[in-house]
Write a structure and sequence with these properties.
With 88 residues, the chain is an alpha+beta fold. Helix content is 38%, strand content 31%. It has a five-stranded mixed sheet. The chain is globular and about 35 Å long. The relative contact order is 0.19.
Length: 88
Amino acid sequence: MIELGGNINLENFEAVEPGQLIVIRKVVGNYTKKISEKHEDFKKITVSIIPETKYKIKVTLELTETKEAEAENSNIFFALDQALAKVS
């Protein structure tokens, strides 16, 4: 698990290429900033790649209640954007 800033967790991203990981960290960070500004009760966000899939992304957003969303795409960036957009 990769932890970013204490309230952002990336799970199963160890196999992602370093160049892609830099972009992923930026995308997740930007979405998290927008979400935390929109929701005062924001606690934590966890973004996971579901093992043995071609980029199925699951996002768990912890607020007062928990929101979850999933998206799957052969392009990791599209899958990430779609899943994050569903919870924001």
